[in-house]
Amino acid sequence: MGIPVCVGANDQLVSAIGANNVKASIITETTGTALAVIATTNNLLDDNRICVGRHAVPDKFYAMTFAITSAIVLKWFRDLCAPGERYDSFIKGVGNIPPGCDGLTVLPHFAGTGSPTFNPNARGAFVGLSLQHTRSHISRAIMESCACMLQECLDPIREHGVEADCVRSLGGAARSDVWLQMKADLLGLPVERPRCSDAASLGAAMLAATGTGQFPSIVHVSETWYRPSQWFEPDPQKYPVYREVYARYRECYSKLYGIDP
Fold first, then answer.
1. Of 13, 17, 41, 16, whose CA–CA distance to 209 is shortest?
2. What value does the mean pLDDT take over residues 144-165?
3. DSSP structure string for 66-119
4. Does pLDDT of 261 surpass 60?
5. What are the structural domains of the chain?
6. Rounded to whole angstroms, how far apart are CA atoms 119 and 56?
7. In the predicted model, what is the mean pLDDT of residues 153-167?
8. Which of 108, 196, 225, 254 has the smallest CB count inside 10 Å?
């Protein structure tokens, strides 16, 4: 009978399928070494800030924006301060630091930027450091910067009228309740954590299950197998504070590189 061979895809696209991102106006984000946003769309978006292509689902397309470095900056800082320490222990004090980190802003572009500026010469920066800032302040500022990049990556897609009721969060950063709440508060959108933390593996299994005829379509298997785990609602009182955090992040980038992100 032979061995069936099914076509796969880029890890971010397969992760999107594993998170049931198979219908228009569903958005997933992955915060790991890099950061990537995937939106399923009905039409091929025309925008040089966005990577686009055909979705695995027939008659659908994807829009992808990305940052080159994100949670790896927290790893870099952890490895400098406490090599080998568990992340939940390392960021334990982050929840006690107020949003905005008492004036500290981080640009996490340690290897240049991806969407929307695609600036290979950009580098990381810590702006506003004082003697009062602690390890927890710096850790939180790094986490807030990744949330700012998420907003930055969402903006070009949403400018094309693509909206969503929530953002499904994947990657290593999705294990942190504090980080997901931070993203929800900054975006002003609910953030959902899927039950399966390895969405890429699940998505690959979904493609294989469809390819071998166990399900009639990718949409069917994705909706059958996907399960949400936890929902993080935005805090309306913190949203205006995070608008200021995001504005400060953009202002710092513009002043350092002369480019409005």
1. 17
2. 96
3. EES-SHHHHHHHHHHHSTT--HHHHTGGGGGSPTTGGG-EEE--BTB--TTT--
4. no
5. 11-257 (3.30.420.40)
6. 30
7. 94
8. 254
